[in-house]
Every structure is written in C-alpha cells, then in structure tokens.
Amino acid sequence: MAPFPASGHPAAEAYLADGYERVVGMSSRFAAAICARLLRLQTEEGVSGPIAEIGAFEGRFFIALAHALEPGEIALGIDIFEWPNPEVRERFEANCLKYGIAPEQRVTIKGDAGAMAPAELLAHARGERLRFIHVDGEHSRAALSKDLALATACLSEGGLIVLDDMLHPGYPTLMVAVQDYLEANPGVVPLCIIDRETIVGATKFVLCQRDWFERYQAALLEIFKEQIWPLGADFEPHWCLVLSLDTRLAEIT
Ligand SMILES: C[S@@+](CC[C@H](N)C(=O)[O-])C[C@H]1O[C@@H](n2cnc3c(N)ncnc32)[C@H](O)[C@@H]1O
C-alpha cells in the first residue's frame, strides 16, 4: 500500500491524525489529506480566497479543509441541516468549535444549494470568488447538475471543484451528469481522481480550469508520486492522474 500523503498544514495534519474519524461523516481521510494538500498547492501557485462545501453535514471534511486555509480566508459550510434531524446543525457548530475552527473563520449557510443563486453564495463569501468547492450535497443527477453550475459560476481563476461519491455503486447516474457537464464546459477538465478508501469513503473527482491543468498536474506528479496509480484515467480524449493508496496493477503472466 502507498503511504498516506502529507497534507502540508500542521493543523490539518493534527486533525486528520486525531479528530477526523471522531467526527461523524462520510468522506475518506485519504481524500481529506489530498484536498488539504491541494489547498496548499493553490497557495503556492498564488491562488487565494474563500472555499465552500455543499453538504457540510457534521463537519468532518469541512474542518479538514478549513484547517488548510491561510490567515484571513474563510470557509462556507452549506447544508439544509435537516438530515437525519435538525440538531445536525448544532453538531456541526460544536464540532467546528471542538476541533479548532473559530466562528470568524467560517460561515454557516442553512439552505438548499440547488435554489441558491451565484450572487447569494458570493455575498456570503464577502463578494470574493471561491478557490475550492467541495460538492457533496443531494446525490441526484438534477441536483448535481445545479451544484456544478453554481460552483462553476462562483469559481475563481485557478479554482478547484471537487465532486464526492463519483463511481459509487449507489449513485451510478451521477457520472452521467458529470459527463454532460464536461461536454458542455470544455474549459473545465478533470485534474485527478482520488480513489475510494471504502464504499462510504468513496471516490472524488477534482476538476480544474483547462488553462491550469498542465501546471497543477506537473505539481501533482511530484507531490503525490507515491500515490499515483500508473495507468491514469481516460476521459476520452482527456487523461488525468489517479491517486490511490493501492497503486498495484493487475498481475498478468
Ligand atoms: C453525504 S452527506 C455529506 C457528508 C460530508 N460532506 C462529509 O464528508 O462528511 C450529504 C449532505 O448533503 C446535504 N444536502 C442534501 N441536499 C442538499 C441540498 N439541496 N443543499 C444543501 N445540502 C444538501 C444533506 O443534508 C447531508 O448533510
């Protein structure tokens, strides 16, 4: 098995080591470590600004992302906060406090992302465009298409859109929405695939603007050299890296 990648942020590292698994949630720790490192990469490339998560739930992934921000940057946590009960919002706030995300570092937005206009989301971000958006809300084709449109409209130059539960056996049609989106938005391409850890800690796709692909991929080849699965992902005709804890190939004799 490949080693766990370093997140590049001491606070994120501490939370991932002792905290992440204690917060109820779904995203994998592997994906959280990679996304925290991607936020560091953006900083290294001069990309700054707020971030957002659609589907913040109890805060597991949100807290990891927020720990990877630079001073003055904020994280927006969006959720309908009704599932599995309305107290989930209190648990989100309590987890953020417990694991070191101060109220001034974040904005909680209770609402349906699918009904949110880009101007509304940007207003929550003090008028700044978002550099990183994790899409993990309602898992239907229609909802994902709306979330992708919202994320695209709010994304900054050099921004990243991360999609959760891709290729998940429980949500096979989400891939159809992604393919439709990529065909309609040729300026956006998959930067890499973050392989699943378990059926719950599912695969994520990381999307970036086409103009940023080569620059980001060159950095990823170095940063994640131990986690690269050799064959890559074929998006016909676009190719991108696959990052995995299991980098083996099938044995053929
Ligand atoms: C799978 S959970 C998110 C898990 C979390 N991101 C993590 O990694 O631990 C999905 C969340 O999306 C929220 N959600 C569902 N539909 C939504 C919508 N239309 N707008 C905003 N949030 C939504 C649900 O309330 C739920 O908390």
From TrEMBL:
Record keywords, A-Z: Methyltransferase, Transferase
Annotated GO MF terms: methyltransferase activity
Gene Ontology BP annotations: methylation
EC id: 2.1.1.-
Enzyme's top EC category: transferase
One Pfam family linked to the record: Methyltransf_24
SUPFAM superfamilies, per the entry: S-adenosyl-L-methionine-dependent methyltransferases
InterPro entries linked to this entry: SAM-dependent_MTases_sf
Protein name (record): Class I SAM-dependent methyltransferase
